[in-house]
Amino acid sequence: MTSLDSVLDKDGVRLTVDDAVATVTLTNPAKRNAQSPALWRALTEAGRLLPGSVRVVVLRGEGKSFSAGLDRQAFAPEGFDGEPSFLDMARGPEAELDATIAAYQEAFTWWRRNDIVSIAAVQGHAIGAGFQLALACDLRIVAEDVQFAMRETSLGLVPDLTGTHPLVNLVGYARALEICATGRFVHAEEAERTGLANLVVPADQLDAAGLELAAALLAAPRDAVVETKALLSGALSRTYEEQRTAERAAQGRRLRDLAGLAD
After folding, report:
1. Would the pTM of this model clear 0.90, i.e. be above it?
2. What is the Cα–Cα distance from 174 to 107, expressed in whole angstroms?
3. Alpha-carbon distances of 237 from 8, 175, 177, 219, rounded to whole Å
């Protein structure tokens, strides 16, 4: 790929590639990057179109808000053009509804692939689906004006776009429950203190901070980063002894590779 090659630009999502760094941009600032099934399909496609050379993916939103969450038109009787409304889907067979939600979730799952490190650069509102999209990434840099909130419960729903697992892992069960059940805002200071944010910067420095972190991640050899990410992402599901075993196996692979003895 050539520098800043535009790979995808559709339905509120633009994917560009600059060598080892890809940038996914939400491009509907007039609607505060509200999300829809079409946008989720475009995000899924962006993940599938990533060139193998990409090591870091930066996710950002144009305008004052990262993403204000689900477009409320989804709950209108008419839904979106060419799409069934959420109310119509709820009246259909349970298996079809489950399959539809699973397809929506695919837009949120690929960001944690072991072969990439994903960074969400978040400013302004990150509400509901917007919060969950930021949580889908490995790392989060936030602007001083960031406002996270999980509003699904307040609407009689539950967070269903893969956000509950990373939220509990980051802040713990009790705080995650309180954030979701109250729907309150989490601002920059609390986000950094509780681990939701890796770094807080002024809004006008957000893009630069994302690229600076991307450059730092590229400094280490790719295979070592891939192995380390796999070790860390699996640590919570392993016992201490299982993690020791996983460390030994990973280090063995790295040493054999460095010695030119890789399988």
Report:
1. yes
2. 27
3. 35, 20, 21, 29
